[in-house]
Amino acid sequence: MDLILGGSLNGAAAQVMYGLEGRRKDVPMILPVVAGLKEIVRKGRDFPWPRPDECPQCHGPRLWGHGVVCAIFDGVAGHVLLRRFRCPDCGCVVRLRPEGYFKRFQASVSTIRSRIVYRLANGRWMSGMSRSRQWYWLNNLFKRVVAHQGLDWKDRLIRCFDDFVEKGRNPVSRLR
């Protein structure tokens, strides 16, 4: 009614209106899939994406196909089609992604790690990729290590990188 009369909804009212008020932010909506990126690219829409067993949000047993989205990855000319599923119970949209990549990152975990190791060992950036991108990874890793481990750990960045990855956390994303 408010929209018809020219009023506006605040964030909380919109969440209630669209059924989003109970969503948990700590549940991953991007699920890793054991699959090679080259195979996904080669098969395109015909790649046999596995259907998740349940919704990660509400644990409902039904997930419907919700199309594909385009994503960009290093080493692939053009875009890669990633499968999405939607839960009809809570409206959660789940995106599948090849294992070995952080969400919102185009480079693989191994590429990011190797670039940081090279920089720390040689004191210069590896060629073939922009220095600003490599600096972003190293700078954010340093900030995350200092924030979570303290200054005593700043000389053991690679060990901390591996610890973060083991725990399922992204060591090179910005702190929020």
The rounded distance between the terminal residues' Cα atoms is: 36 Å
Helix vs. strand class? alpha+beta
Mean pLDDT: 84
Query: Mind telling me the C-alpha Rg?
Result: 20 Å
Largest sheet: 4 strands, mixed
Helix content estimate: 25-40%
Strand order of the largest sheet: 1-4-3-2
Number of domains: 2
The unreliable regions are 1-5
What's the overall geometry?
A: globular
Strand content: 5-15%
- Total helices: the number is 5
Instruction: Give the SSE order as H and E letters.
Output: HEHEEEHHH
Number of strands: 4
Put the structure in a nutshell:
The protein has 176 residues and is an alpha+beta fold. It is built from 5 helices and 4 strands. It folds into 2 domains: 20-98, no CATH class; 109-166, no CATH class.
Description:
The chain is α+β, with helices and mostly antiparallel strands and 176 residues long. The chain folds into 2 domains: 20-98, no CATH class; 109-166, no CATH class. The protein is 32% helix and 14% strand. It has 5 helices and 4 strands; from the N terminus they run αβαβββααα. It has helices spanning 11-17, 37-43, 109-122, 131-149, 157-166, and strands at residues 30-33, 64-71, 80-86, 93-98. It has a 4-stranded mixed β-sheet with strand order 1-4-3-2, covered by helices on one side. Mean pLDDT is 84; it is low at 1-5.
